[in-house]
């Protein structure tokens, strides 16, 4: 088995486990494949970051299948649109149910 196909198999397995962990379901096979492609790119970015000399590590969380366009207006860098938590050096994310993720995890 080539390194590429092994990584693809490993990523697919991780996606299945990740979906179960975060209770993710999709409306169609096409939507699931689109979300898998986003998850795969997120995994690549996580691995690339963690391979560097950064002072912190990142991982795959409940947002790993989402693009920037999937977040509600106001979620982004700096300040949470819902709780006003200021975290200028990290991405402040609010869940798709519009409940404040930052306030429930860090305050």
From TrEMBL:
Annotated Gene3D superfamilies: 1.10.287.2250
Q: What is the lineage of its organism?
A: Eukaryota, Viridiplantae, Streptophyta, Embryophyta, Tracheophyta
- The chain positions of domain Cathepsin propeptide inhibitor read 15-71
Q: What is this protein called?
A: Cathepsin propeptide inhibitor domain-containing protein
SUPFAM superfamilies, from UniProt?
Answer: Cysteine proteinases
Which InterPro entries does this one have? Papain-like_cys_pep_sf, Prot_inhib_I29
Please provide an example of a Pfam family that matches this protein in its UniProt record.
Inhibitor_I29
Q: Which organism is it from?
A: Oryza barthii
Superkingdom, according to UniProt?
Eukaryota
């Amino acid at each position: 088995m080539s390194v590429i196909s092994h990584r693809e198999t490993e990523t697919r397995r991780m996606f299945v486990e990740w979906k179960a962990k975060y209770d993710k379901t999709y409306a169609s096979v096409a939507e699931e494949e689109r979300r898998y492609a986003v998850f795969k790119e997120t995994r690549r970015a996580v691995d690339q970051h963690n391979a560097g000399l950064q002072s912190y590590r990142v991982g795959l969380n409940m947002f790993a299948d989402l693009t920037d366009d999937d977040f509600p207006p106001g979620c982004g860098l700096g300040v949470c649109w819902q709780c006003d938590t200021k975290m200028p050096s990290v991405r402040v994310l609010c869940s798709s149910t519009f409940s404040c993720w930052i306030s429930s995890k860090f305050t």
